[in-house]
Structures are given as structure tokens and as C-alpha cells.
Specification:
By secondary structure, this protein is α/β, with parallel strands linked by helices. It is built from 10 helices and 16 strands. Strands 3-4-7-8-9-10-15-16 form an 8-stranded parallel β-barrel, surrounded by 6 helices.
């Protein structure tokens, strides 16, 4: 019962903890370190066609009173050609997901084709299509709120990809289920929800927005109820066959269990790492907490998935 091994479609992971995109995923060394610390898988930073410097500072603000972060980094990345060289240095045992973004179906396909053409010794286990960044001028939420565009992007990506396609969804939409449905129809075999929530801060002394970009995205503990709601709705709508990766506001092992009870197969986390000095001990604490909970319930990690739906009917 203590084993935390899970399967996301054809992808087998040693535990359900996944490092989310954008956190410690820019370099091969940070990905190697996070996997060595105990994550079941790690996700790269979102990579696009052209190199992007991102927005000017201040671009990341920690809000201690709610254990949350507001950021407007602007999908800063070195571009897919340069990043292809970075992937060559990832340790052979590391299971990683490559997050990519674009503004058209062709851009997503171009990145996928190029990465696959590199014949990497350790290729990614899946491509995660970022359809949800709330502060990017191109890509992200601009393509992730229209079901037909999402369908075309995912269909195009699956037509050229040799590995599974996941999609990352935005919470900044009226009906997240319609976007998930479009992705599944297009061939996505994993759904990641949610990305950051639209947000901003104003300095009352200067009377100006604090972020250089004015608007940004909120992550961290404050958005967990929104993430739980999204996963619960998606599981209710899509059923148990579609793997869901719940992200948003995870701060302890109890939050992880909550996501899995809502219907998540695995969980993604990132913002909580800002609060931890020892990565290995932090991940171990999460894993230990999950194992002890499962022992008290005399159940496996897969057996508790979606139980909140059954108990809601009692």
C-alpha cells in the first residue's frame, strides 16, 4: 500500500509529484537536481519559437500574508533551438515533460518536430502545450480560451508527436470543460489544471501598479480552492479515463491528497519551493505525509482518486 507509483496514460512515475513549468526548469542542472530530490517527474520552463527576454522588473512579487506569488515574467525563454542543446545534458534517469507554447498550430508543430529530430538520449516523456499564460502578449491565454483553436492546436501537435500530448488550461475562462473537451477530441492524453489566476497589485504610496507589466498571474496557496474546483469539475465531466494533473496552491501533503480525492492522477507544484531551503527534505516530507495517510486509510494512491465524488452522494 505504501507504493506511490502512478501511471499517466503510458507514462509511469515513481510518485505523483511533478515540478510545474516555470519553476527551476530553465537549465538542465536544476531539472536534474529537482528529480534527484524526489519528484516523480519535472517540467521544463515553457519554450517558444523565438528567444524572449520577458518583461522588465519588478516581475515577481511574493505576498507573505497569503503565501502566494504574483508574476509577470512574460514567458522568458531562450527559444527552442538553444533549449534543444540544454536537453542533451539532462541525466538519463530523469523523467521530464517539455512545456511549449506558440500562437499558431504550426509553431507548436515546429517545436515538436525539431526536438524529436535531435535524437536525444533522454527525450521528454510528453509535450505539455501551454495554452494558459495570463500575461503573455502572444500564445498562452490568447489561444487557450477558444475551443476550436485549442482543438486545431492539439490535433496538429498529436499528428506530428511521437510521445503523449498534455494541455495546460487556464482558470481565466467561463467554461474550462469546453476547452478540456476540445483538447481530448484533438488527441490530448493528459490535462494540467490550473495555471495562474489573473491578478495585480497597486502600491498605495506611489499610486502605481507594482508589476512593470501592470497585470500578472497569481500562484500559491491563495488559488488552491480554484484549482480543486477545476479538477473536481473536469473529473466529473471527463470521467476517470482521462488523467488529470492538479496544480495550484499546493503547500503540504494534505493539499496533495485533496487534489487526488477531487480526481487528480498526479499533482504539480512550484510556488511552495520559494519557502524551502532544503529541496530534498521538503519533497521527502510531502512523500512521507502521503504514505502515512494512505496507511491509515489502508488504500493505495490510485484507490483514493476521485473519492470525493462518491462521498458527495452519501
Amino acid at each position: 500500500m505504501s507504493s506511490l507509483k502512478i501511471a499517466i496514460g503510458s507514462i509511469l512515475l515513481r510518485n505523483p509529484l511533478i515540478l510545474t513549468a516555470g519553476i527551476l526548469g530553465t537549465t538542465f542542472s536544476s531539472l536534474n537536481r529537482c528529480y534527484a530530490a524526489g519528484f516523480g517527474a519535472v517540467t521544463t520552463k515553457s519554450i517558444g519559437i523565438e528567444p524572449r527576454e520577458g518583461y522588465a522588473n519588478p516581475s515577481v512579487i511574493y505576498i507573505p500574508e497569503i503565501d502566494s506569488i504574483i508574476n509577470a515574467v512574460g514567458l522568458a525563454n531562450p527559444g527552442y533551438i538553444t533549449y534543444g542543446q540544454e536537453l542533451k545534458k539532462i541525466d538519463s534517469e530523469v523523467k521530464y515533460i517539455m512545456s511549449i507554447f506558440g500562437s499558431t498550430p504550426d509553431e507548436f508543430q515546429l517545436i515538436i518536430k525539431y526536438i524529436q529530430s535531435r535524437n536525444l538520449v533522454n527525450p521528454p516523456k510528453a509535450f505539455e502545450l501551454n495554452l494558459s499564460c495570463p500575461h503573455a502578449t502572444k500564445g498562452g491565454i490568447s489561444v487557450g480560451t477558444d475551443p476550436e483553436i485549442v482543438y486545431e492546436i492539439v490535433k496538429g501537435a498529436t499528428s506530428v508527436s511521437r510521445i503523449p500530448i498534455w494541455i495546460k488550461l487556464t482558470p481565466n475562462i467561463t467554461d474550462i470543460k469546453s476547452i478540456a473537451d476540445a483538447g481530448v477530441r484533438g488527441g490530448a492524453t493528459g490535462i494540467v489544471a490550473i495555471n495562474t489566476v489573473k491578478a495585480m497589485l497597486i502600491d498605495i504610496t506611489t499610486k502605481k501598479p507594482i508589476l512593470a507589466n501592470i497585470r500578472g498571474g497569481l500562484s500559491g496557496r491563495a488559488i488552491k480552492p480554484i484549482g480543486i474546483h477545476a479538477i473536481y469539475d473536469l473529473y466529473e465531466y471527463l470521467g476517470a479515463k482521462t488523467p488529470l494533473i492538479g496544480t495550484g496552491g499546493i503547500w503540504n501533503w494534505q493539499d496533495i491528497i485533496e487534489y487526488i480525492l477531487a480526481g487528480a492522477t498526479a499533482v504539480g507544484m512550484g510556488s511552495l519551493l520559494f519557502n524551502y531551503n532544503n529541496l530534498e527534505l521538503s519533497v521527502n516530507k510531502l512523500i512521507t505525509g502521503i504514505k502515512k495517510y494512505l496507511e491509515t486509510q489502508d488504500m493505495s494512491i490510485s484507490e483514493i482518486r476521485g473519492l470525493a465524488h462518491e462521498h458527495a452522494q452519501i
